[in-house]
Amino acid sequence: MTETQSGAQTGAEGAEKTGLKIERVFSTEGTHPYDEVTWERRDVVQTNWKTGATVFEQRGVEYPTTWSVNASTIVTTKYFRGAVGSDVREWSLKQLIDRIVKTYTKAGIDHGYFATDADAEIFEHELTWLLVNQYFSFNSPVWFNVGTPSPQQVSACFILSVDDSMDSILNWYKEEGFIFKGGSGAGLNLSRIRSSKELLSSGGTASGPVSFMRGADASAGTIKSGGATRRAAKMVVLDVDHPDIVEFVETKAREEDKIRALRDAGFDMDLGGADITSVQYQNANNSVRVSDEFMRAVEDGTDFALRARKTGEVIEMVDARDLFHKISKAAWECADPGLQYDDTINDWHTNPETGRITASNPCSEYMSLDNSSCNLASLNLLKFLKDDDTFDGELFAKAVEFIITAMDISICFADFPTEPIGETTRNYRQLGIGYANLGALLMAMGLGYDSEGGRAMAASITSLMTGQSYKRSAELAGIVGPYAGYARNAEAHKRVMRKHQAANDTVRTLAIADSQVHKLATVAWAQVQELGAANGFRNAQASVLAPTGTIGFMMDCDTTGIEPDFSLVKFKKLVGGGSMQIVNQTVPRALKKMGYQPEQIEAIVAHIAEHGHVIDAPGLRSEHYEVFDCAMGARALKPMGHVRMMAACQPFLSGAISKTCNLPEDATVEEVEEIYLQSWKLGLKATAIYRDNCKVGQPMATGKGENKGQSSNVAASVVEPAETKVVEKIVYAPTRKRLPKSRVSRTTSFTVGGAEGYMTSGAHDDGHLGEVFLKLGKQGSTLAGVMDAFSIAVSIGLQYGVPLETYVAKFTNLRFEPAGLTDDPDVRMAQSLMDYVWRRLALDYLPFEQRAAMGIYSAEERQRHLETGSYEPVEETGSAAELMESPVIEIVDVDVDATSVVEPAETPVAETKEAHTSAELLEKITGHAVDSPLCFTCGTKMRPAGSCYVCEGCGSTSGCS
């Protein structure tokens, strides 16, 4: 625990200030934190799962034995500095942590944070202990930059500003570029730019903000963040009363239509595909900034004014519900835009006298002044779970104090991409402490994520974290002074502190565990009021809930940020290479907490390992199912479960929450509207949704599941407003089920009446035929061209759902030359090439019952009929393992010219898809697709982390650090 040195005079102008007196809490006096853990050497070799190529190799790196292979791989590849293979390359976690901690400690000494050198040394040991034992982590830019010759950029989140001038717009492009180059993301609000419905001073018509978004999007798509393969992350916000709001809302939805059209024409439109770069607006998250006035108009069904940017005059009156429906429909179609609730955000703003909050960072958790930045750090909540499965609030509070102190120190030496950002950050000193592993913590405590108990626990922890942070901020203000902008915002800042305290008083605890944490939070908020009144505050903001993608893996967290567990089964790398499927280790701990015996726990875990869920698990009581609900799978959490958890924690955060509410594919536009409306009513600052399979530009699962919903470019229902009744227009459209990139195929050579040919057929993972590729005649001949065209037509038809039996019925028994004997024992005579081809496909892909109805039998079946009088196969017997084995498919090695648009199978060997991440493992178990992009670095399927995606293989993220 830390405290202000006794007798220090604080808060008065020119008063003598002394440093912090540090009490040792985590480390052991006389023993360095490194000496308390066991170390080992490891080889870090990272390969691309798709190509097998080695993308990184460093041998003999040093880590604690308690760190997982995954954590050491990610830290070595992402955070170790120096050229690989050189003498200056970092090779030990000790070097990495020392580089960070010693820089922070020196800066703390130089800027008067510590009472004595001994206090500084204790601070260094405490911070080192917390990092090496994975109790918390700074955000990625700290690990990238601190203690290196590079600029000491420590912030991951930036907010920019742009005005209605060409100089400002071009400067926006430039500033974003430098931020992306440094490995961070930025957001801004474009609402100051005149709309395309307003005039320029020259008399012409303005271009509007959406047109300028094109240039910024192209820039973001070109610049690779931090010299890695991760693309730039950005947020674009537009106010709901901007005259171009409809164009902005529908921008990305219309681009998704373009993606579908190009995909269906044969272009590679997967994320990272060769042709996806031709599509615009794909590098930013879009959000609409809505006001209470607009939301009340939506509730009341009244009109809403769109206003000119310069004069504020009304340009157009629109139906609020109609505009809200368009926003929700666009989000239903492509997951954009999200909503940011402007009045709620600014009601919790500590610096309104300086300016309004108009935008956020890319993941929407940092919300503050324009031209500002925020450095983040997150605690691993599961580390504070005691042996009796209660949360150690006192230890957690002490850790928060150390971390907030370090985060504030970093602003003293940090570099910034632009001087306006640096000036604002130094004047307001925004921090973003948060946490990870909430989902795992609640499960281990036997609390359902979507339960009153789970929300009470989460709210109490979040309240304690922010209360303790502001308490420390007030203590620091008494030592090194409040932030420069505090004087003009003092009353507003203290008002927000009272709002936090009042929200804490409304938390309804349900058990001893959460009530103990809540009592600590109550004490902390009382101290915030007392110390803040005397000293002011060192930091304008203290807390956010970030995605914690890469740093979550660094801490070996099971869950990221505020998220629930992704799934109950995990993909785990092993020391020495290889991997294995395991059941989340939090599950047996939770079962033990709920009173199950070892034999019962073993049976339940075995059931989960086989099925991926707890439904019908032997001995598990149904009332305990909710404890094991996850983001994905058979018992996926309901969308409002996510919203309610966010609402429980939001009143105790300075910023907001990076989180996406997941919806099933068959969700409706009206459900999206309800989520957005309830999020506003529950006091959230921002909400984003994602409906399964709504985006094309992401590689989908190739497991057993099918896309059972309708095409994402067709609204489930378009509700026409009417005076007396609602008219619902249902539009039906076929959905193309594309083949996986690597699929099972068979190639057959044949002769019919002396004419030779080759047929390659490819199947989906569920065994259904998806393509046919015929080779007849010489390349360039009319016959070869006709066969290519026929193959394309048939393959597209199959992928759009035309049943194979329909083709068989239409094309068998066609008569034309060549005809006669074949070399196929199952089809001895054919009346034409088409007759043979479709009989062969029927034998290969149709079940016996359907073939028999059309009189198509194999040679074995005809022989059986002669012997027994029945064509039907004899029922197979044997072990379950034998019956589940996949048949071996013989592939004939032939020279097939692949000029058709319909691609033949990429490999002549039929292989079962192997899981390389938890996302792929869940797909394999459940047979349902997980909508996530593939990692640019290692080719594996990423999994959701807040509003972003993170790769379990290498730690790469799709956006936020």
UniProtKB/TrEMBL annotation:
Q: Identify the EC number(s).
A: 1.17.4.1
Q: Which UniProt keywords apply?
A: Cobalamin, Cobalt, Disulfide bond, DNA synthesis, Nucleotide-binding, Oxidoreductase
PANTHER family for the chain:
RIBONUCLEOSIDE-DIPHOSPHATE REDUCTASE, VITAMIN B12-DEPENDENT RIBONUCLEOTIDE REDUCTASE
Q: Which protein family is named in the record?
A: Belongs to the ribonucleoside diphosphate reductase class-2 family.
Q: Which reaction does it catalyse?
A: a 2'-deoxyribonucleoside 5'-diphosphate + [thioredoxin]-disulfide + H2O = a ribonucleoside 5'-diphosphate + [thioredoxin]-dithiol
Could you identify this protein by its name?
Answer: Vitamin B12-dependent ribonucleotide reductase
Instruction: Tell me the InterPro entries matching this sequence.
Output: RdRp_reductase_class-2, RNR_2_N, RNR_lg_C, RNR_NrdJ/NrdZ, TSCPD_dom
Coiled-coil regions listed in the entry: none
